[in-house]
Design a protein that fits this description.
Length: 223
């Protein structure tokens, strides 16, 4: 009986993870903001939500699967895009979910997402300096470094902040819905608007608006 129950739970988890992967992939078509040769979409937020529910390792697996799927279907940046997409998504998911795994509270979520913003941004700056020159036509380390303060740093910082804000807004409703559907363990608690939850929602919505403005105005992006 227990063996069958465990198999059923594993099957449900795989199905849910496949759905999250599909949603992350679809995000690349539904909502995109182009800034120079860089592109923002909300796939990291979708995968981070799944990682915070199921664990950081699942977030890394999802990041690899979605990056490979993008590479094989719609990517115009080849191996370079595969490397950068995987690194960015995996770091954001692993850091946010890793912290939240040991402190499953609103404060833990905020701390995890804050760490993910800083850690992912720092990693992408390093990878841009190390990897990007090999894929830029006539590129050099000096040319990439010159782009950091005007493009690479503000873009990656805004990208990670916006993904973190989306997680703050969407995580609780999604986790509650999965519990009500008995996909997740735990009581089918309702979405209570306590002060901490309401503050997180408001902060997340404000950050989303600010980030869109930064993308479109300060960085000259296009949707």
């Amino acid at each position: 009986m227990n063996r069958n129950r465990n198999r059923y739970e594993k099957l449900i988890r795989m199905i849910v993870m496949a759905v999250f992967c599909a949603l992350a992939y679809v995000c690349q078509f539904v909502f995109r903001i182009h800034v120079s040769f860089l592109t923002f979409d909300a796939k990291d937020a979708v995968m981070a939500i799944a990682a915070m529910i199921f664990g950081p390792l699942w977030g890394i697996v999802m990041a690899l699967l979605v990056a490979l799927l993008e590479f094989l279907t719609i990517s115009g940046t080849g191996v370079y895009g595969l490397i950068m997409n995987f690194a960015s998504s995996a770091a954001f998911c692993a850091i946010s979910a890793g912290v939240y795994k040991y402190k499953r509270t609103m404060m833990g979520a905020v701390l995890g997402l804050s760490a993910a913003v800083l850690g992912t941004t720092a990693l992408m700056m390093l990878l841009n300096v190390v990897v990007t020159p090999y894929y830029m036509t006539g590129g050099s380390v000096e040319a990439v470094v010159a782009l950091i303060p005007t493009l690479l740093l503000p873009f990656n910082l805004t990208k990670t902040v916006m993904n973190a804000a989306l997680v703050l807004v969407l995580y609780k409703p999604i986790s509650v819905s999965l519990k009500k559907a008995r996909i997740l363990k735990g009581g089918p608690d309702s979405f209570a608007f306590d002060r901490k939850t309401l503050a997180a929602l408001i902060a997340g919505l404000v950050l989303i608006v600010v980030c869109v403005i930064v993308f479109l105005q300060a960085l000259g992006g296009k949707m």
